[in-house]
Specification:
This protein has two helices and 13 strands, in the order βββββββββββαβαβ. The radius of gyration is 24 Å and the shape is elongated.
Length: about 170
């Protein structure tokens, strides 16, 4: 079978880039996990890798990188359910007070998302957000739930922690 291809090569010398960030898709609250940041380089050098979680610095490592792919391991844990965005940024060190030139700075960042899931519960939206017969029945059946009024935000992020939403006498 004939196969047509076109080779795209990196014509930049001295480039260091974040190839990927390997995060787990889902973890439980307070579950420790590790993830890999793959840094690729076409020369041996020292690089600094910074990892941000939701825009806040989580970790920083300086280490030598070899020609080719290099794996850098990080560890984390999160206690609250939800989505957490991670960014990995690689930079080259300064030599005698001046930064080393990186020919393609656009490939120095990679991002990923981890979803922290806990025991899912039911969201009950009723007119006043107060307990009633339905919520007392859910409590007696030991079904986890949360009560709220109809002004509860109905975004994917706010509803992700629930298995179901019950609209009780609300428009």
């Amino acid at each position: 079978v004939p196969i047509d291809f076109r080779s795209f090569s990196n014509n930049y010398l001295g480039d260091v880039a974040v190839q990927s960030i390997g995060l787990p898709q889902e973890v439980a609250p307070n579950e420790p996990y590790q993830f890999n940041v793959w840094v690729t380089s076409d020369r041996e050098t020292e690089a600094e890798i910074v990892v941000l979680r939701n825009g806040q610095e989580l970790a920083r490592k300086s280490q030598p990188v070899k020609v080719g792919s290099n794996r850098v391991v990080f560890r984390d844990w999160v206690s609250d359910p939800g989505f957490y965005q991670y960014s990995a940024i690689v930079s080259l060190p300064q030599v005698e007070g001046t930064a080393v030139e990186d020919p393609v700075p656009q490939n120095n960042v990679a991002t990923g998302v981890v979803r922290v899931v806990s025991v899912r519960k039911i969201l009950v939206l009723n007119p006043d957000g107060q307990p009633d017969n339905l919520t007392r029945a859910l409590k007696a059946a030991q079904i986890p739930f949360e009560i709220s009024s109809p002004d509860h935000p109905l975004t994917q992020d706010s509803l992700d922690q629930f298995n179901a939403v019950i609209l009780e006498n609300v428009s």
